Amino acid sequence: MKKKISLLLCTLTVVFALAGCSGEDSGVEYDQAAIGEATEFLISYCSTADETTIEQWNSLSDEQLDIQMAQSGYPFTGDSFLGSMDAWQAGIEECGAYEGHGDFTYDASQTELSVTTTAQFADREANLEIIYKADVRGNLHLDSLTVSGIYSMGEILSKAGLNTLLGMGTVFVVLIIISVIISLLKYIPKLQEAFSRKDAKVQEAAAPAAAAPEPAHRAVPEAAPEAEPEDVTDDGELVAVIAAAIAASEEVPADGFIVRSIRRRKSNKWM
After folding, report:
1. Alpha-carbon distance 263 to 33, whole Å?
2. Percent helix, strand and coil across the chain, each to the nearest 5
3. How many domains does the chain have?
């Protein structure tokens, strides 16, 4: 019985030892003192930086930022440092002026290291989380800084109630507007009829004056002259008589004459 208990205890000891070793090997390697110093510097600098300082940092080029980060000796990059200052300014707007923070808590995974603490601000406390990510070589570099305000249950409920009220109020306002629009649709046919009547009146007023009756004093057009009666005399007989008279006067046979045309003179006198 004692041997079985001893064997069980030895087995449990080996299991816990292996579990501890695997937990240590699963996280990234880091220097706690160096990371703590870099985090302290980051929080201190962000808490004292004003808008002018942030604008000066933003005006630098990427190469100048990299040079400044390299000269600082801390595991910062230009983008992560500027992003941390912006996040800190947003946290101040939410929680008030910075007053201090507590001890750091380190939580390492295979690819990153999370440093957390509770900070005191003028309006409320906030949770600070600074993330360091490991590169291909295993070196840690600053990735982000987050300031999360701590709200009481009453504040959370009041904010949720306000959001609900605003959402429902917006929905009801939209529904009221839609109902008003639908109720006004019945007046559209009446408006169309009124406009059509107005257009008809305008067309009647713009009708041409020629439709009015003609005045009585209008001059009567003159009657067309009567056509002269057409002469129905046979032209063949007239041609024969004229040809015989000319032939007798000229003493030539009448067959030698050809009458081309006959024209009547205006005067009946022979010249």
Report:
1. 143
2. 55, 15, 30
3. 2
Report the C-alpha gap between 79 and 62 in whole angstroms. Answer: 9
Q: Structure tokens of 150?
A: 């701590």
Q: Which range, of 9-18, 133-142, 252-261, averages the lowest pLDDT?
A: 9-18
Task: Report the Cα–Cα distance between both ends of the chain, in Å, rounded.
Answer: 182
For 37-180, list the strands marked E by DSSP: 98-101, 105-108, 112-121, 125-134, 140-149
The residue type at 44: S
Picking from 134, 163, 185, the residue at the C-terminal end of a domain is 185
Per DSSP, what are the bridge partners of residue 144?
Answer: 131
> Residue 152 in 3-state DSSP?
coil
Q: What is the pLDDT of residue 21?
A: 46
75 DSSP 8-state letter? S
The CATH number covering residue 45 comes to 3.10.450
**pTM of the predicted model as reported, rounded to 2 decimal places:** 0.54
